[in-house]
Amino acid sequence: MANRKVLRIIVWLFVIGLIFAFSAIYYVFNMPRRNIAKENAAFTMTAKQLISDFKKDENGANAKYLDKVIAVSGEIKGIRTLDNHSMVFSLEDAMEGVSCTIDSADVVRNTSKLSQLKGGETATFKGRCSGMLMDIQIINSSPE
After folding, report:
1. Which residues pair with 43 in a beta bridge?
2. What angle do CA 10, 11, 13 make, to 5 degrees?
3. What is the pLDDT of residue 92?
4. Cross-strand bridge partners of residue 124
5. Are 114 and 87 spatial neighbours (Cβ–Cβ below 8 Å)?
6. Which pTM value belongs to this model?
7. Exposed, middle or buried: residue 1 (CB in 10 Å: 0-12, 13-18, 19+)?
8. Domain boundaries 36-143, CATH class
9. Minimal CA–CA distance to 107: which of 37, 40, 30?
10. What are phi and psi of 77, to 5 degrees?
11. What is the C-alpha separation between 6 and 12, in angstroms, rounded?
12. CA 98 → CA 20, 32, 35, 101, 119, distances in Å?
């Protein structure tokens, strides 16, 4: 009789644990996305200034800009459309400049603004800085 009670308690604890685990997983995969277009930019600068900051002191620039919303303006040197229909605008230098990536959903939302942007023009993008690889990555961007 005592063994049945212990077994029943263990089974109920296991079921409650499963419910909690699945609820946590569901929440993590379905949490709302951060809307950077509605946030105020912590920093507003030119792409040349941002590139200069990262070249002088990458660790200091990471501490200052990483995961912050920044507005960057500069000359468009390249425009690419990726396989997932997102777009990448390269500012100042296609290899070592600033890459502003616009998600496919934001491409659809901003089609009229994006269709007007051409290489050689100056544009401003607001997004979240994710650091420097070969170029400085600004993700979840939107045109200003």
Report:
1. 70
2. 65
3. 87
4. 73
5. yes
6. 0.74
7. exposed
8. mainly beta
9. 37
10. -100, -20
11. 10
12. 42, 27, 21, 10, 14
